[in-house]
Amino acid sequence: MTTTEFTTDQLKEIEEGRKAGIDVSVYENPGYLAIQMHEIRLGLLENLPVDIYAHPDFDWFQMEEIRKGLEMSLDVSKYADPNISFDRMRQIRKGLEAGIDLSDKKNMAAGVLQQLRKATLEHLNLSVYINNGFDEDQLHQIRLAKKNGVDIDSYVIPDFRGISIREIRLGLEHHIDVSVYASREYTWQQMREIRLGLEKHLDVEQYKNVLYSWQQMREIRYGLE
To answer: Rounded to whole angstroms, how far apart are CA atoms 174 and 7?
Structure first.
């Protein structure tokens, strides 16, 4: 194998390994990108069992997540699978760090896993929403509502985007009547204008007509203020 087979960055990783006295033969392979070599080199420097992730099937993001798990003495077999994207690996790893095993839900989207992990740490149950197909943005707002002790269940439907649920959550937290605008007829911007009006005790009847654009609603709200 000649040096001409390697890029300059790859040769740098090999040289750095030799200087450190580690066995560079583990990653001295032109099939690895330099950044993959880097992750393997870091593992070797820490005497980690890099054979778990020293394989071209793992991209360097995945290698990093496995390496970090090994550094924490976690059971990386829970997620060391090339078919698991690095962002899902990350949520499983962070879960394991907190004593939560999410590996049986590895097929969920990374954002959903993140909300599930955070909810579990906060002793909240999002399973009903997850089972009903709510996405990560929706789950984020529902989780915040439950964390803040707000009963949002009566107003949440799958049709609402996360940012619309946010407007409902903020309204409930400010103890206003969100039923005035918690409707699929309104965009989230329109919801926001009505919410802001209610919070300031304005007569929102004057502009809550769905035919008004949110910009028109805002101008009327400014006038009422």
So the answer is: 59
